[in-house]
């Protein structure tokens, strides 16, 4: 695949998260040639993280036996609120960044044009253009990972709203008496159904004496827990983990029902690392609870589906963005 791609301009998509950096190398037709992943290490500060992004990009290209000289442009999805025109991350709580000029700093290191977008908006672009072939006119994406974000396609275009911050579906309040969220509110979807929320609840229950196969698999501190471990435990009959995942799925279902009532999209698509690992366990509950909470007729003809791009949606959207560079 690398040999076929080397004759064309290469596009790089980068998914920057609170825990990991994923860089993907694509050809001009948006075929993924290879990828590379490394931990974010946000404690090193924004400059340290940018150096890691640059290294991740270079390693991804090198793993494909290609050359950075072939790279046309780089599209980066960053968490939190961003000013895509100025190339600035305005606020990223998971990284503890504020008003950081990511594009300027990264371009200085890689010497290639860089474009910036919110991570969930860029994932929505990837899902819409590559997976859905730009066919539906209205799509809502919910991306479940370290946090929960969303993306909105309205009339075939990414919708950012007047504030350019539209799509923060993870901060929809679904339980007013729920746990406090990183944004300061209580009962946000992110605080109840994200990977962080799932892991926090499981670890707290184990501290309080709850038994689970996860302790046998990973040790009592559950330090290296991953989303896939939850699936393995459920497959082995762990009713506690199954209940935790089902309750999170119910909150996602409530959110989906609300979205159907408000926006009436043609497609509601669920993506992100948690969905990649647990789609089989999560999706049926989401579909059922959404039907219970949507107004009669609000879900008629609406497709609720898991993204096949899964955790590659962000890098795919980054490549779509990079392809727009003249």
How would you describe what is shown here?
This protein has 326 residues and is an alpha/beta fold. The chain folds into two domains: 2-119 and 313-323, Nucleotidyltransferase, domain 5; 125-308, Nucleotidyltransferase, domain 5. 41% of the residues lie in helices and 22% in strands. It contains eleven helices and 13 strands. The chain has helices at 2-5, 45-63, 102-110, 119-131, 189-193, 195-207, 213-218, 227-235, 239-263, 273-293, 313-323, and strands at residues 10-16, 20-26, 32-39, 71-78, 81-83, 88-92, 97-100, 114-118, 138-144, 148-154, 157-158, 267-271, 303-306. It has a five-stranded mixed sheet. A hairpin with a 2-residue loop joins strand 10 and strand 11. Helix 9 packs across helix 10. The longest helix has 25 residues, at 239-263. It is globular, with a radius of gyration of 19 Å. Residues 1-7 have low confidence and may be disordered.
